[in-house]
Automatic annotation (TrEMBL):
Pfam families per record: 4HBT_2
Protein name: Acyl-CoA thioesterase FadM
Domain of life: Bacteria
Classification lineage: Bacteria, Pseudomonadati, Bacteroidota, Flavobacteriia, Flavobacteriales
InterPro entries, alphabetized: HotDog_dom_sf, THEM6_lcsJ_thioesterase
Organism this protein belongs to: Algibacter aquimarinus
């Protein structure tokens, strides 16, 4: 996969934030581990190997089990790509309650509704997997 390295950068920035925040104590230290439920990346322009770029992570919101991020790749102040991720925490073969994790991590907001556009983007993921398993 030619552009798989950009998925690595998307993971790296999320892990950096996790390890630098109180969320680390509320999750990994309690035996939970982060799982990537799904991710999409949309390219406007190619991100060429060895070219420097900036990546910005924007929290888009959360629901019972998932937190959603937008990651914007820019070069020379121009958007080259946008990645959208759906991330949760797993423990004992079960996705964990994201609202409780956020509350225990010091997040003051009790709710941050995810836009319909982002929910729709991930809506058919499970159906795609099920139809491929045959």
């Amino acid at each position: 996969m030619a552009n798989s390295k950009y998925f690595y950068y998307m993971d790296l920035i999320r892990f950096e934030i996790l390890f630098r925040s109180d969320m680390y104590k509320s999750t990994i230290k309690k035996g939970m581990f982060p799982v990537l439920g799904s991710q999409k990346i949309i390219y406007k322009k190619p991100l060429k190997r060895w070219n420097k770029f900036d990546i910005t992570l924007v929290l888009e919101g959360w629901d019972d089990h998932w937190v959603y991020h937008r990651q914007v790749f820019k070069r020379n102040n121009e958007v080259y790509a946008i990645g959208i991720t759906k991330v949760g925490f797993w423990k004992k073969h079960k996705i964990q309650d994201m609202r409780e994790i956020l509350l225990n991590s010091g997040v003051k907001k009790s709710e941050m509704v995810v836009s319909d556009d982002i929910i729709t983007l991930f809506k058919n993921d499970y159906n795609i997997i099920k139809s491929t398993e045959a």
